[in-house]
Specification:
This protein is α/β, with parallel strands linked by helices and about 110 residues long. The chain contains five helices and five strands; from the N terminus they run βαβαβαβαβα. Strand 2, helix 2 and strand 3 form a beta-alpha-beta unit.
Length: about 110
């Protein structure tokens, strides 16, 4: 699993022709409060029952509040055969601090 900082992810999203799946594993109330544009909500607790709906060949950036839950989900996805998994280190909290200071925080 790769780790990517918010600034690295922002630059990567600006440069890539094929955007990765931005998989937000927080709870719905957290996702409603703030999110990275274009991300898809799939709460951590639902991952074991629904990860088969995701494409294991697609690049996936896993996102949470601070990067802890997302790292656990990224490990799970790697063990399930996903070979292009990236953890957003620092999560949306770091994204708000380093990339989008207008994003609400909690």
């Amino acid at each position: 699993m790769r780790q990517m900082s918010p600034r690295e992810l922002c630059d990567y999203l600006d440069q890539t022709g094929t955007p990765p799946l931005l998989l937000d594993v927080r709870e719905p109330w957290e996702f409603q409060r703030c999110r990275i544009e274009g991300s898809r909500l799939l709460p951590m607790g639902e991952i074991p029952a629904t990860y088969q709906e995701l494409d294991p060949k697609q690049e996936v950036v896993v996102i949470c509040h601070h990067g802890v839950r997302s790292q656990q989900v990224a490990w799970f996805l790697e063990r399930a055969g996903f070979d292009q998994v990236i953890n957003l280190s620092g999560g949306v909290d770091a994204w708000a601090r380093d990339v989008d200071p207008h994003m609400p925080t909690y």
